[in-house]
Amino acid sequence: MAEANWYVIHTYSGYENKVKANIEKTVGNRHLENEILDVRVPLEDVQETKNGVTKIVQRKMFPGYVLVNMVMTDETWYVVRNTRGVTGFVGPGSKPVPLSPEEMWPLGIGDGKEAPVVQRPKIVVDFEVGDTVVVIAGAWEGTEGAVTGVNAQKQTVTISVELFGRATPVEISFAEVKKR
């Protein structure tokens, strides 16, 4: 038997869970459990702060995409490709390209050879440049300042605080500030 690999399928946006359910149903109906092993919609925990209330929510990591672990045969390709909501496999032309273990580890799906890197949840904030925020932790705790920059990649905000009578930019983690 050939080796199973992870493949990425492109779906209509918002149809990821429906595509997953349809593939799983077809696998059961056609008895392909040994060929299509797993179907996943990768989710991530995101810390979201809105109106001063912080909560952890799950979001799709890749909207419009579903991961499938399968043995690539003509039949499995046909089943996945012709599932309602699927627009195709990711890869050049009509040839799907399997993901490498290194590409799967950040998703928490490894091959057992090396532990995946655990990532901290991303934080989504509802403030923007010009808003006033209060620092709630760290060395600047209790300080108020105007937002002069937001870096979602680094998960930091730059605020302007008064220090010795002058406006001074300070970079602080999203987790340490809240909107006033």
Give a structural overview:
The protein is of the alpha+beta class. It folds into 2 domains: 103 residues, Alpha-Beta Plaits, CATH 3.30.70; 53 residues, SH3 type barrels (Roll), CATH 2.30.30. It has 3 helices and 12 strands; from the N terminus they run βαββββαβαββββββ. A 5-stranded antiparallel β-sheet has the order 11-10-9-8-12, with no helix packed on it. A 4-stranded antiparallel β-sheet has the order 2-5-1-6, with helices on one face. The longest helix is centred in the N-terminal third of the chain and has 15 residues. It is elongated, with a radius of gyration of 22 Å.
Notable traits:
five-stranded antiparallel sheet, Alpha-Beta Plaits, alpha+beta, SH3 type barrels, four-stranded antiparallel sheet
Outline the fold blueprint.
Blueprint: E1 5-11, H1 16-30, E2 36-40, E3 43-50, E4 53-60, E5 65-70, H2 74-81, E6 86-89, H3 101-104, E7 122-125, E8 132-135, E9 144-151, E10 156-163, E11 166-173, E12 177-179
Summarize the structure.
The protein is α+β, with helices and mostly antiparallel strands and 180 residues long. It has helices at 16-30, 74-81, 101-104, and strands at residues 5-11, 36-40, 43-50, 53-60, 65-70, 86-89, 122-125, 132-135, 144-151, 156-163, 166-173, 177-179. The model is unreliable at 112-118 (pLDDT under 50).
